[in-house]
Amino acid sequence: MTSSLTPSPFSEHDHKKCVREALDTAEHICVIRGVQLTPIRHKVLELIWESHKAIKAYDLLDRIKPLMDAAKPATIYRALDFLIEQGLIHRVESLNAFVGCRCSAHQHEQLLLICNRCHDVEERPATKVMRALAQEIEQAGFIVHRKAIEIHGICAKCEAQAGNPN
Amino acid sequence: MTSSLTPSPFSEHDHKKCVREALDTAEHICVIRGVQLTPIRHKVLELIWESHKAIKAYDLLDRIKPLMDAAKPATIYRALDFLIEQGLIHRVESLNAFVGCRCSAHQHEQLLLICNRCHDVEERPATKVMRALAQEIEQAGFIVHRKAIEIHGICAKCEAQAGNPN
DNA sequence: CAATCATATGTAATATTATAACATTCTCTT
DNA sequence: AAGAGAATGTTATAATATTACATATGATTG
């Protein structure tokens, strides 16, 4: 019973489970690391996980204001800083926006496939790419701190719909 | 006779030649394509090529104002839009800044190595990475419009200096 | 217990980055 | 000379992000 109204590479999945898992993992990681997933941070993470689209800081602010009247830009940006530090979300550089990270416990740096149609962001570990990348960087004598690999285009789901729009 | 005061992967090269080539290529490409590299656009490109560091739009604005009193943000952003469209510069998404592109005639999408110390940006075609990437994206059934591959860290030059600071 | 320290949050102001909308000019073509 | 298209001028404002300082909260320890 999947609606085709909101095309998405994720439209088939059980999103509640998806979110629950993400939040459980986040809570677990924070306990292990002895860092505080405070109510604000938890709420921001939850809001980010409402969809697989990247969400902007001020949209998060709008969403959180009804719940926390005191919320200001700094409130959001501080929570985002924390979540990024802990590898619980990605900052999508090419969108100035933020998306949940499923890879928390494992490697954080992944390839992001960003659909220009449905706006969902898909993470891919892309081990072969990462291996080639490591080699290239090594050859350049470069020492990596951070990687941002962002591909914009049309996801499989949207493409299928475009070709077959029923 | 290379100064070690401004460490850079490019510090050994003849930068004047580098710029001249870039501008010549740009002029040539624009003629071929029948698009106008107007004085404003040319000046912006020249300013961007003053170094291999990514430069911010408002820094460009500050640099161009003494020459063109009328310059406003839109002046700069329009020139930048044109230069990006023509593949003459890269927008560095993770810096909100702009850097000259040496690959104009060839493929435009390259890997960017961004040094956090000297701030120089090095382009690399990285064909193996690109090949692996194409394969990965193909597997995902994704159709690429645009790639941004940005690696932050310390370049070889700066690393050498750090280890051997004479 | 009081003192202090570190962490997190509240709050206001402001800095930085980018776009929208509409007017004007310039250049080419007819 | 008229008209079309491209480029630029100009003003205003939107969107994104940070700084600085005040306050609170909770743990640690003298």
UniProtKB/TrEMBL annotation, chains A, B:
One of its GO terms (biological process) is regulation of secondary metabolite biosynthetic process. The keyword Transcription regulation applies. One of its GO terms (cellular component) is cytosol. InterPro entries: FUR, Fur_C, WH-like_DNA-bd_sf, WH_DNA-bd_sf. The keyword Repressor applies. Zn(2+) binds at residues 115, 118, 155, 158. It comes from the Bacteria. Coiled coil: none annotated. Keywords: DNA-binding, Metal-binding, Repressor, Transcription, Transcription regulation, Zinc. Its cofactor is Zn(2+). Binds 1 zinc ion per subunit. GO terms for molecular function: DNA-binding transcription factor activity; transcription cis-regulatory region binding; zinc ion binding. PANTHER family: ZINC UPTAKE REGULATION PROTEIN. Belongs to the Fur family. This is Zinc uptake regulation protein. It comes from Candidatus Methylobacter favarea.
